[in-house]
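User: For documentation purposes, I need each entry recorded in a consistent format: the amino acid sequence on its own, followed directly by the corresponding structure tokens. There are two entries in this batch. Please keep commentary to a minimum and don't merge the entries.

Assistant: Recorded as requested. Entry 1:
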Amino acid sequence: MIGLTAVLFNSHSIAFVPVEEAIQKRVEMFKTSKSNIKKLRQLIRSGDASKAVPLVDFHIKWSKEMPMLFPLGSEASTSNGSDASSDIWDNPVGFKNAINQYNLKSRELRKSLLSADSVLINQTFKSFAGTCKGCHKQFRN
């Protein structure tokens, strides 16, 4: 997971990848994100907030890189394996706002994890996870 993340985030040409490669990379990143959120949930439930911080750092970075993996022409089709709704390109401001909320809530979760306040951690985790659900509801087929 760390190697894949490092390769994707250290690539300076990520904004210029072919459509097929962008789709592949974002599908991989969303799978990593989903797995990461499950691990976060487990660590938070077990009270091990310090181990959760690096997992949240992934989401902060992913939220900054995500827009570059949605080039025109990468919406869902029967041949490309993408679930991306055309609403991403029809409503780019809404999509960008959703990504900005994901970034904001990721940073808030990181701050709460560092505070070790379990009530705050649980609240911010729910808010963070809600940004994923909300975006997928609106921008995923």
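Entry 2:
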Amino acid sequence: MIFMNKKEDQKEETNIVMDTEPAQATISEDELKKLKDNIIDLENKLKYSQAELINYRKRKDEETANLLKYANQDLILELIQTVDNFERAIKLDDTNLNDELSKFLAGFKLIYSHLTETLKKFGVEEIPTVGNIFNPNIHEAMMVINDKTKPNEQIIECLLKGYTLKGKVIRAAKVIVNKLD
């Protein structure tokens, strides 16, 4: 049996003294102003970041909408070339409706009209040309003539039709323009 005396027990016990009074922090007015300025700066950065995120989302939504809106643009451009070929073939038509060529052209005209109506359903519109004033945003001047009987900048002839897809020019009209000196 081991005996311990009171002195040893007291040595083993440790008393933790806790300070119950709160520590008083002393901050100078300069430090307080710096902290307030820092808070204001961080709040401004947060607002800027939030606004930037909102703008990013709007921009991405707009890009996605445009991508979907004009997704078939390449296909339509290829179909427009086919429409051009049909128009060239139809121009070969003559007044003799009994020959073989006229019978073929009658079929071409049906296909052409169906194709142009289908393109219109998808938002394709022909750019107006002859008789209108030249607009460099939708027309491309291939030639310039000087005819004093016609107004300046008037389109005289359309060499190749232009088209818009839902308001966006996908092919400018190639035209001959009257230019007075």
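Summary note for entry 2:
Confidence is low (pLDDT under 50) at residues 11-17.
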